[in-house]
Amino acid sequence: MSSTESAVTHVIVVGAGMVAHRFVESLLSRADESWRITLFGEEGRHPYDRVGLTGFFGGATPDDLTLDRAVLDEERVRFVGGDPVARIDRTARRVTTRSGLSVAYDRLVLATGSYAARLAVDGFGLEGCFVYRTLDDVERLRAFVGKRSAELGRPLSGTVIGGGLLGLEAAGALQGVDVACTVVQSSDRLMSAQLDLPAGDALRRIIESRGIRVLTGTSTTRLDPDRTGQVTGLEFRDGSYERTDVVVFTVGVRPRDELARGADLAVHPRGGVLIDAGCETSDPRILAIGEVANFDGACVGLVAPGYAMAEVAATRLLGGDASFPGYDLSTKLKLSGVDVASFGDAFAETPGALDVVYADPVAGVYKKLVLSDDAKTLLGGILVGDASAYGSLRPLVGGALGGDPAAYLLPENGVAAPTGDLPDAALVCSCNSVTAGAIRHAVHEDGCTDVAAIKACTKAGAACGSCVTMVKKIVGAELAKTGASLSNALCEHFDMSRRQLFDAVRVSGLRTFSAVIDRFGAGRGCDICKPALASILSTLVGAHVLDGENATLQDTNDHVMANLQKDGSYSVVPRIPGGEITPEGLVVIGEVARDFGLYTKITGGQRIDMFGARLEQLPEIWRRLVDAGFESGHAYGKSLRTVKSCVGSTWCRYGVQDSVGMAVQLELRYRGLRSPHKLKLGVSGCARECAEARGKDVGVIATEAGWNMYVGGNGGFTPRHAVLLAEGLSDAELLTAIDRFLMYYIFTADRLQRTAPWFEELEGGIDGLRAVIFDDSLGICADLDAAMAVHVGAYEDEWKATLDDPAKLRRFASFINAPTTPDPSLAYTAERGQGRPATPAERERGGVLIAGTILEVRR
After folding, report:
1. Predicted confidence band at 410 (pLDDT cuts at 50, 70, 90)?
2. What phi-psi label fits residue 706: left (phi over 0), alpha (psi between -120 and 50 degrees) or beta?
3. Which residues on adjacent β-strands are paired with residue 234?
4. Which terminus has fewer CB within 10 Å in the chain: N or C?
């Protein structure tokens, strides 16, 4: 043996998952040529992104999910796939694979991960039952759904057993292939390992609003087959029965520690190879990392702790000093349109910990920060419905919050969460242990000027992606110090801004999300770009929001074309243009509200809202309204809401113009116009301004000389008064000006940007806007006019089109096998002659009205 060969250190890695890949990458990046690695994998694949597994149902291929192949292609690495290690001989320091291959090692790293658990119930092995763990699992599941649906000639119903992170992602994946899905959770709430009860209740309402049914406090006792051995139903502990065509088990994972047990390594009684802070097992030549490793009595199925262990193990093997700091249990649900995150001490288990909670059940938002007993140090938090602050707050865990805690929880236009001004030691990316200081160093020393470069250089944001927003803020702040600017990319999947993407879609003529991302983007999309592109396609293509791919892109309310309320019911808001309604129309609304037991309220936008409709009632309610001549009021969409008006010259002795007639004309013209944010207009018949037009996105005020037009007014936490754009306009001139203003806004605004902040950022201010609209300074007025003409000509009522389409109507069922059965979780109490949602205390006392029961208030 040569001296060169004798100096070689051979490391065997057992397991070829994400953590093993990270370990190999880390070791090779720092080791010299004397190190050699052999990687054994059970699957016949290169390591792939298991975190993004659900993307497989959204069009991702195995190649899309494969991790950097260059790591295993390095000449110092030998990858053996499809031939797992079957035995470890610690005395001889050799491993033997299933095929009989025997290889010696100097050091051994166990990264065998975990396997998906199944319930110990009769029937778990029936055809149609799956686990959700590997690419092979999801490939088999997708193939089964397609085959079985074709055999039965109908879409399938599915059940996911387990309501944790993976269970909800699996349910979303099934829904994406047209499987009507129910999630069954044995505990009292979804994601019980990460969320407290109020947060779990908020998440349940969001999930159910997407058409996914949820059963909590429910235990499965048996799975029943049909005559061919296919699963056909589930029996529950309470004796109830649920029909189903496919079952997915997501009830947790168990560490793959059988090799360690066979080699007599120390193993925890509840599973997992015992390790110390240096990731060493009871044999100093063997290390364990990832889900198979048990540290401080726990095994954790998250990638971030596994990556941290991989770095510690590589450092220790190379003679460095590193210690595993313990588990960071921060998590973020990766389900489009569902914003949920949990981090740090989310359950306030630290002695003396304080909770600061913000809840808006109507908006479906629940936020909690956990603070030290002096209310200065952030210990953890839970965010449901709006997790935008997750990337900013999580790095501050263990440090001073530096402000009024309540301010960090306020909704849009409140006090902003921390931005890029984090201390260098703050951990920004927990998956890859990247600090704010490391990102700043990459900007100034390595020349990284965008998020993609930061990912490549530091790995920040390269795993789950939840820290990308924070990374972008830090990079932007650092570039600003040098006089440079950060890319205004929509998200990591599109390098262009919303305005650039709008132009790209308009010019290319593409009509689907998949076609757009294939040509202009990368990856599978996210909850930022999907709704944004849905809005763009709605404007440019005009397809129904529930047609084809569009249905999977929409925000929560658009999925069922109704506003979700605090108790899980929905509101029904027919359009009443200009607030003008006939007595016959009022009678129909009254009869519908009476017959369905709906709470009614006249709104500030001169409409009548009806609250408390159940999901399965929506088509029946809307059929009666549509038959009476009503149409959708789009209260659920980022689109025109109302055009408020006074009675104007028709009745008022001060009115100088027909404000009602103009309001009706505007509302009928712009109804259904999708935009970056909601739109509100107002028309006042004189300068007394009874319609409050100057608080609207577009305000119109009548004068003797014509119409004065105001733009950029908004309510909210930071109200803005509209600014005068033009005076003395005729009816035709006013319509043209509003057409161009709205289309210019839709063409150029950022996602979720209202007209007030958009207008404030316009180059040239009000004079620049006048030049665009009236002088055609950009040469785009013909395009703006044409786009509005297309919208006006192509408009159709979304609810009428839905009622005429049986496929769309299948979405509106509370229970898959009993579509007309009321949701028993809905309960009401009478107040001022109408039913309102019962409070928890009222539910406990009893005497409330349960959905489906006719007492003083009909349900």
Report:
1. low
2. left
3. 223, 242
4. N
Q: What is the dihedral of CA 463, 466, 471, 476, to 10 degrees?
A: 130
- Residue 858 exposed, middle or buried by CB count within 10 Å (0-12, 13-18, 19+): middle
Confidence of residue 334 (pLDDT cuts 50, 70, 90): low
Q: Which two tokens stand for residue 422?
A: 């984090």
What is d(CA 490, CA 496) in angstroms, rounded to the nearest whole number? 6
Helices (H) and strands (E) in the chain, counts: 27, 39
Distance CA 411, CA 332 (A): 19
As a whole number of angstroms, the distance between CA 523 and CA 58 comes to 10
Q: Which residue has the tokens 């519908």?
A: 592
Q: Enter the tokens of residue 576.
A: 């009443």
Per the model's pLDDT, the better-predicted residue between 362 and 471 turns out to be 471
Query: How many Cα atoms within 13 Å fall on the side-chain side of residue 841?
Result: 0
The string of DSSP letters for 637-666 reads SSBEEEEEE--GGGT-TT--S-HHHHHHHH
Q: Which of 660, 680, 793 is nearest to 742 (CA)?
A: 680
Residue located via tokens 């993307």? 55
DSSP category for residue 717: S
Q: Quick one: pLDDT at residue 99?
A: 94
CB 426 within 8 A of CB 399: yes
The torsion angles phi and psi of 71, rounded to 5 degrees, stand at -65, -45
Q: How far apart are CA 130 and CA 251, in angstroms?
A: 12
CA nearest neighbour of 389 among 361, 362, 356, 424: 356
Strands, sheet with 246-249, edge to edge from the N-terminal-most edge strand? 129-131, 246-249, 157-161, 180-185, 213-216
CA atoms within 13 A on the CB side of 779: 0
How many Å apart are CA 220 and CA 539, to the nearest integer? 46
The secondary structure of 771-791, three-state, reads: HHHHCCCCCCHHHHHHHHHHH
Rounded to 5°, the CA angle 136-139-144 comes to 125
Please name the helix (run of DSSP H) or strand (run of DSSP E) that holds residue 309, with its range, or none. helix 303-317
pLDDT at 571 (0 to 100): 85
Distance, CA of 505 to CA of 490 (rounded, Å): 14
CA distances from 450 to 59, 465, 477 (A): 27, 15, 12
**pTM for the predicted model, two decimal places:** 0.58
